[in-house]
Each structure stands twice: as structure tokens, then as C-alpha cells.
Design brief:
Structural class: mainly beta
Radius of gyration: 18 Å
Largest sheet: 9 strands, mixed
Distance between the termini: 15 Å
Number of helices: 1
Shape: globular
Strand content: 35-45%
């Protein structure tokens, strides 16, 4: 298993996941969802910020033991309104559950001399952030990250919903199923992709997400401020 080191040689600790069902009387609980306790607080080490990239949230420089380097950048959320021009906010699943929606993005830059392939799989189940803070938000907060199809380029970052097209038909077809991504990126090349986050959050909060590299491969982090944070294993980067 390939280990990745963040800049300043701080190893991003991996937090084991455990499943646990929230109480059924919680009005936001949907049976079959996976609860993951928030990880212990980890140091956040950033490589740099590129002010020319709009809606940029975090930037990581990841280095493996062989010296391969990858820059991973994660974007801020956009959306919250209609995803199909109908005027209906968010997404209504076939079972009638109404989710809020937001679009995020991640960007990978290959700063090595060899190409690599990234493989991601997001789970079919939602994740639940239990409220462990002293903040007034109560209950469990359901987040469902999805990898939609669609080509994302830098010129779309200033557009509504980051310029994604065909999102509702994709969700209609793939809701409740794992979603996957695989892409090979050559030396000096970059690749950007969308992440859709469907949510049922009690009382609001600030959502942040991001792809990170840890001891056991890639993880995707979901953070609801000031409530808590979860992350899950989602794939790997393999140099060819």
C-alpha cells in the first residue's frame, strides 16, 4: 500500500471507520445509512493557494516514498438552487426524500515525470455526522457524496453550479448506487472533476469537502462546521 506524505513531512493520519446506527426517532435518520464518528483533530498542512483559481478552498502537495508528487486542490461549494432549471431547490429522490444539493470540485496536477492513474469509488450509502460539538445544531446530519459524469474545465468555475449539465438525469439513474471515476494523467497535466453533495442537515452549518491522501490511499473528507467531520476511503493513485 502506497503511503503519501504531505508537505512539511507531516503524515496525514488515517482514521478507521466504524458503523453505528443513529437513533430511529431522529427525524433526519434514513434506515441503511452509515454513521462514521468524527476523527480526532488532525493538523492541516497546506502547500499553497493559487489566487487565480476561483472558489479554491484547499491545496495539498502529496509526496510518496518514491518521490512522486501530486498537487490536490479542492473547491468551495456552489449551488443550493435548482439543478435542472425547474425552480425546485435541491433534489427529490424516487422515494420522495428531498435533499439539499451543492457542487464541489477537485483538481489534480501531476508534477512528476511519470503518468499516474487515479481510481475513485464513492459509496452507495450516505454518511452521517453525529453532533459532538456544543453548538446548538441537534440530531444527525446526512451527507451523500456522488461522483457525477461531466467534463470540468477551469473556465466553468465561474458558472452556476460550475457549469455541470445533465445532473438530475444522472442522479435519477445512479441514486443509491456506488459512483466511480478513473482517469490517467500524464506528466505536467491536470485533471478536474465534479463532486455532488446531497444533504439533509438539521439547522444549517457550513459544508466543506475535499480529496486528501493518507496512510492507506485516498480519502474524501466531509466537514460540517461547527458540528463535526467524517472521511472515508475512496480510492488510490497509481503511478504507471
Amino acid at each position: 500500500m502506497k503511503h503519501w506524505i504531505l508537505l512539511s513531512l507531516i503524515l496525514l493520519a488515517c482514521v478507521p471507520s466504524t458503523s453505528k446506527s443513529p437513533p430511529t426517532e431522529d427525524q433526519n435518520y434514513i434506515p441503511g445509512h452509515v454513521t462514521i464518528p468524527p476523527p480526532a483533530e488532525q493538523p492541516r498542512t497546506f502547500y499553497a493557494s493559487d489566487s487565480t483559481i476561483p472558489y479554491l478552498d484547499t491545496t495539498w502537495l502529496c509526496i510518496d516514498p518514491s518521490g512522486h508528487s501530486v498537487i490536490i486542490q479542492n473547491g468551495l461549494p456552489r449551488g443550493g438552487g435548482s439543478i435542472d432549471g425547474s425552480g425546485i431547490r435541491g433534489y427529490i429522490a424516487a422515494n420522495g426524500v428531498h435533499y439539499g444539493s451543492a457542487l464541489f470540485w477537485s483538481r489534480l496536477v501531476n508534477v512528476s515525470t511519470e503518468s499516474f492513474t487515479i481510481r475513485l469509488t464513492f459509496p452507495a450509502d450516505s454518511l452521517v455526522i453525529p453532533n459532538t460539538s456544543n453548538f446548538s445544531l441537534s440530531g444527525h446530519h446526512i451527507l451523500r457524496p456522488i461522483l457525477p459524469t461531466g467534463t470540468l474545465t477551469a473556465d466553468k468555475l465561474t458558472k452556476y453550479n460550475y457549469g455541470i449539465e445533465g445532473l438530475k438525469p444522472f442522479l435519477d439513474e445512479h441514486f443509491g448506487m456506488p459512483t466511480r471515476l478513473e482517469q490517467t494523467i500524464g506528466p505536467g497535466e491536470e485533471y478536474m472533476f465534479y463532486v455532488t453533495l446531497l444533504s439533509k442537515v438539521s439547522g444549517g452549518g457550513v459544508l466543506r469537502t475535499g480529496l486528501i491522501a493518507g496512510e492507506e490511499g485516498l480519502r474524501y473528507s466531509l466537514r460540517l462546521e461547527p458540528v463535526g467531520e467524517v472521511s472515508f476511503p475512496c480510492g488510490e493513485i497509481t503511478f504507471n
